[in-house]
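User: Can you fold this complex?
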Amino acid sequence: MGLNVYLSGEIHSDWRDRIIEGAQGLDVTFSSPVTDHAASDDCGVTILGVEESKFWHDRKGAQMNAIRTRKGIADADVVVVRFGDKYKQWNAAFDAGYAAALGKSLIILQPPEHDHALKEVDAAALAVAREPEEVVEIFRYVLTGTLPG
Amino acid sequence: MGLNVYLSGEIHSDWRDRIIEGAQGLDVTFSSPVTDHAASDDCGVTILGVEESKFWHDRKGAQMNAIRTRKGIADADVVVVRFGDKYKQWNAAFDAGYAAALGKSLIILQPPEHDHALKEVDAAALAVAREPEEVVEIFRYVLTGTLPG
Amino acid sequence: MGLNVYLSGEIHSDWRDRIIEGAQGLDVTFSSPVTDHAASDDCGVTILGVEESKFWHDRKGAQMNAIRTRKGIADADVVVVRFGDKYKQWNAAFDAGYAAALGKSLIILQPPEHDHALKEVDAAALAVAREPEEVVEIFRYVLTGTLPG
Amino acid sequence: MGLNVYLSGEIHSDWRDRIIEGAQGLDVTFSSPVTDHAASDDCGVTILGVEESKFWHDRKGAQMNAIRTRKGIADADVVVVRFGDKYKQWNAAFDAGYAAALGKSLIILQPPEHDHALKEVDAAALAVAREPEEVVEIFRYVLTGTLPG
Amino acid sequence: MGLNVYLSGEIHSDWRDRIIEGAQGLDVTFSSPVTDHAASDDCGVTILGVEESKFWHDRKGAQMNAIRTRKGIADADVVVVRFGDKYKQWNAAFDAGYAAALGKSLIILQPPEHDHALKEVDAAALAVAREPEEVVEIFRYVLTGTLPG
Amino acid sequence: MGLNVYLSGEIHSDWRDRIIEGAQGLDVTFSSPVTDHAASDDCGVTILGVEESKFWHDRKGAQMNAIRTRKGIADADVVVVRFGDKYKQWNAAFDAGYAAALGKSLIILQPPEHDHALKEVDAAALAVAREPEEVVEIFRYVLTGTLPG
Amino acid sequence: MGLNVYLSGEIHSDWRDRIIEGAQGLDVTFSSPVTDHAASDDCGVTILGVEESKFWHDRKGAQMNAIRTRKGIADADVVVVRFGDKYKQWNAAFDAGYAAALGKSLIILQPPEHDHALKEVDAAALAVAREPEEVVEIFRYVLTGTLPG
Amino acid sequence: MGLNVYLSGEIHSDWRDRIIEGAQGLDVTFSSPVTDHAASDDCGVTILGVEESKFWHDRKGAQMNAIRTRKGIADADVVVVRFGDKYKQWNAAFDAGYAAALGKSLIILQPPEHDHALKEVDAAALAVAREPEEVVEIFRYVLTGTLPG
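Assistant: Here's the predicted assembly.
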């Protein structure tokens, strides 16, 4: 058994690296959105032409990113969604809802101060973790039956 | 043709009332989450017994509310998701993602200051409205072909 | 047994009226797109605000019309798609493909001069008719087992 | 992450070659309909026997081609549909509708003069491109996060 | 609880009447194919025009009948398929396979001499009955919990 | 909003009656398996003929009961599964798994002594209740937003 | 593009061998039912124990064969169903219906004398062939665009 | 043709080893739940933190195990469920129901004394075996057409 894992959410800390590095040696294949914030914002107009309106500038970019996001979630066995300290992160919650409706196994990675605000998201998840290393331990256990320590 | 509409999101302003009242005379059936904030938070422990941990207190409530939310979205032709000024509103974005994955027609109701933060959500929607009255006009047009003015 | 029928395609002749009138007395419920050409083109900007770019003007309208179109096709047992003499009619062919992928029973209504150009569309259909009255006879036969004459 | 891409539509220009060549080095697997116009028209009767009627001649061919087309679309992550200058191209619009109903990511490749006629098709797409090279840049960005220039 | 039942198969004996009459008073809604053999054979050419080839004559009719058959099976909770003494009855077996793939509850009504030939069909069924009256008793039990005698 | 509810599991106590009676006045439609133990065991052979082998005696009955059970679960928004004190109750757990895979909202009704043995079943549920009256209160809250007391 | 093909139906002539041999060099993967008639009839009782009743003897075998048949059809892009001269061949028609409901591309291989009896089956197919060599040519054309001669 | 097989149920005897060993040389890929009872019970709290309540201790573990279980069942062609002598084994019956609803081929492995209690589970299965070696023989027959002896 191997796992396809999509890493959704926060793009301003090193949580993805910590998970990917920690999972070395396990049969896990990772995918994730484009995490270059500027490229992610401007991809649509850079490739398909400038928009005067910021609204349609954003739309073009968001739809281009959706090609990658939907593929990543559709192919995933497990979707990990990370909520961090900054920004609205509505795209993270949107991905969580999207993945839940497709029946994907959801793991939410969040600090305790967000617990109440994330209760509906957590209620659709199979695990709520605090640290990336816990997510790695979940993968290790799910794939090998081995617990830490 | 009639429409089943689920009204998701913000529960602290009168937007639902304005839509429901405005749509009188149209063949629209509305459903929505429980909008009594306190009841929504405490339903789980009130009915099924107290929890010491706030985390599981929230979980019990969120899962009980999910019985209503999932039914509302599953039965809907159109899901309207309102993002307001306060709170994290991750449950609103979660509902939007859930509805999108089920192929529901999405209408997002949002103030312009949230446009950039909601660009991924908007990119999955068929309309982005600013005022509840616009949503009513969409229903009127979709059902009768009549435009305002 | 009753039939839900969606009438897609050409909006510049009276074919819908001839079918609906001819089917009186049969247990058929009809739906169709908005057939007021001007309203259909301008609905998006009229309700949700003017766009400078014609491209986004069209997008707003097309997505608003999609709320009705998708509902009509999703609820239909049979989708009739009419190809007429004028315009590109790519939306008609799009609806036919959409309906085919959902497993709907397709009836195509077309003049013989389009036969070759429509061969892929016809190949997904259960009937190719020339006149609206033939479509009525199909409904009568399917519902009552009665043939004309 | 790799992408399966189906290239639908116009068969009389070199747009497929330009995309396939441009995408060399990217993890993209392409499929497409048979682009030999004569073979595509006559495959049915050549293999399964002559038909006196042109209508059934066309039907036999179109259904044989559908074996390939449906497989190509079903396996695709992304469906690119090209609308050119000539012919009715209803099969291209049919493929777009078929792909949309299956939830595939759609990219439409079209000249500006078709914008209004294609507005319903575009409304279901995640990108509207003008040149094959833009489609290549979309694939590069989606797969590697790299923007041109 | 009520049941939608589709009665597929043999059209040359009175088994449908015996079931429908026997089920009077039970909350069962029946549908069935057109059982007028001549109409069923000729519907296509009668409505849509004569074919020189018998093969396409049959195709036109079979596809028109499929509009009714697919609707009947799609809406059914239970599909009863009757195999009689005469003819090849491949359409009956086709309907049984179609219904099985859709997860419908199958009841097969067959004489013992066909048991071996129908073993694959029976293996997908929830009941194999010998007489129409047994099918009525199944409906009575399923709906009311009452057994005969 | 109304709810279709299927009441699965234990047939030797009055829990169904307590729920149905308690829910009077709420928009809930109930269905359930045949709860006459003897009829449920013998329905197959009584209607379709005696079997020498107890194994096939049981098979015939279980498949006949499945016509009702599958219909009840398929139509349900909420499936309540009651685990009591006696018997193996594997059919109850089977129904819970079946309902979970179909995405139904699950409520499990169980005494605390079964908590550990039911942990996998509970993990797929939206609520775990101890008394039928709690299930009634869940329905009242889900449908009206009203909490007890 | 490669094709997974399931070869259903008649087991008493060499049609499978002729197709498989003819398709050498093409990217086609074949599967088929067990074609050893005696093994296919007796597999259930041989492995799982003797049955006194021929009916359950057959049932045990048919259900064991269904493990292979369902897997073969589920994995197939194309299902070829051969109707020969002998036996009732209801399992072949059942497979055709099952495959049609799953949206598989169907090719029917039949002698002309069965045309009328198979019209409903043919109406769900994308090709009706007379000889195994024609099926090979279809595969060659679908995969390479090359026509014979 | 190869088979993906998920081995669900009893974890206190060597039945999995006997099947896996017996199937050596056949194209079968096996997966199974974590069979270390202590690890399976405590995985949730060991990785994600201690719970005071046994109920939530169990929930955390059961949901973590569900990541593996759902993946195993979702990927399987065949699900074998073993019922042994001890414990309630409701998770085994839950897995059987879950697999049945997904249309997986079910094989139940059970001693005769459980036949009556498992009749509803068996009624959804394609084979009921008594010994692991019989399951191996089923795989050998399904994959190679060869019967023992």
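Helices of chain A lie at 15-22, 37-48, 54-75, 90-101, 119-122, 132-144. Chain A touches chain F at residues 103 (CB under 8 Å).
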